Amino acid sequence: MQSGGVQSGAVGTEPTVLMGTIVNPAGLTLAKIVPQTRVPVFASAGLGASPTWHAFAADQVGIAFTDAIGVVGDQRIRIDQEAMRTIDTGLAWAPGEFFSQAGEPIPQCARGTLRRVVDRLAAAGLQALVGHEIEFVVTGPHGEREPSDLWAQYGAAGVLEHEAFVREVLSACESTGIGVEQFHPEYGHNQFELSVEPLDPVSAADQVVLTRIVLGRIARRHGLRISLSPKPFADGVGCGAHQHISLRRGEAPVFSDGSGAAGMTVDGEHAVAGVVDAMIELQGVLGGSVVSGLRMLPGQWAGAFACWGVENREAAVRLICSGPSTPRGANLEVKAIDGSANVYFATAAILGAALRGIDARMTLPPQVIVDPSTLTEAQRTDAGIRPLSADQSTVVDTMDSSPVLRDILGDPAVDALVAVRRYEVTHFPDHTAQTLADRFRLAWSV
């Protein structure tokens, strides 16, 4: 198998068991465990799994059956052994992919889909790096609200209140080979953000999965859990999962060192245009869960408008320009992503949209230099600024009918995504923000 995965890290004591994971269309992290002696089999022939793994729903009960996904048949999960990492004494981890019993890639497999999109970029002479921000809220062991009397937005009190947890997370990330860019308290009560270093797209998505596992394990040691839900508490702030994308053609960056808008090259302008143009259709992949609409509102820094701007935190696409304060260079931050998304599918959708913009030589719309919500509807229409939807039924229907997404991800993958998200909309149609937040608070936790 072509390798991806986290590219560095200490291995320590030989582990006794290995956990192989996949992320399904509902954004759930699913796992199989084998003793160390079975690792070679897990990596070659693979372990059996029902096609329904692609249809398990986020309510922890339902299965979103489709014509292509049912109780008949069997698939194989193979781990990428080159991406294997030791998490702790006795426990190793590796990302997995789905194959048929004959060894053919399964088109609903998210990691395999991302690798195919990366191959398309390479064929076009482009290479990508992706960095991720992981926002989460610390809760009690059953998802209950933790005390936050001393919490202040971005305040040092938050670090000191959870100092033992913070220190252990950083230590575990270092020993596991996770590159931490920064770790800080966030705006919401008991909310943190962990930003990890940019890697190639598949490795970066693998790193997110591994980081979530590390966070979950350490939280348990402290009698806590972490919530990655888009809206952990109805009266609190949302949690995003922003992605930072940079592209290069050969050795040359496309989002800087050019003569175009904000210093971009022609390729860079086309790439941004492609992402902005497709953003409404991408929304179901980036934030398609039944909880996502609670976050996708103006004033949440969630990127609730399909537009772009330099350092504009209310635009769905924020351009971070190159300069002395950005040693890694210019990049795009896509903000309309949350923790309920499948990270592999989300990255594939963004990169595919950027490549589509380059291939079609799409015209870059004018940048937005104000908070889009401060404009009138007529002003936004004149500027080509489109609001993302907070109605998840509309989001799912748009995803289902999107020729752009179907071209990027393929029909089987989109059909699986639509099925699990339509299941959520159908089974939780009239729930309040409170009941949705309560029901799904730990749905995407590990």
From TrEMBL:
* E.C. designation(s): 6.3.1.-
Q: Does the keyword Flavoprotein apply?
A: no
Q: Which domain of life is it from?
A: Bacteria
Q: Tell me the ranges covered by the GS catalytic domain, including all copies.
A: 110-446
This protein's UniProt keywords: Ligase
Single GO molecular function = ligase activity
The text of the family note is: Belongs to the glutamine synthetase family.
The protein's name in its UniProt record? Glutamine synthetase family protein
Q: Which organism is it from?
A: Gordonia sesuvii
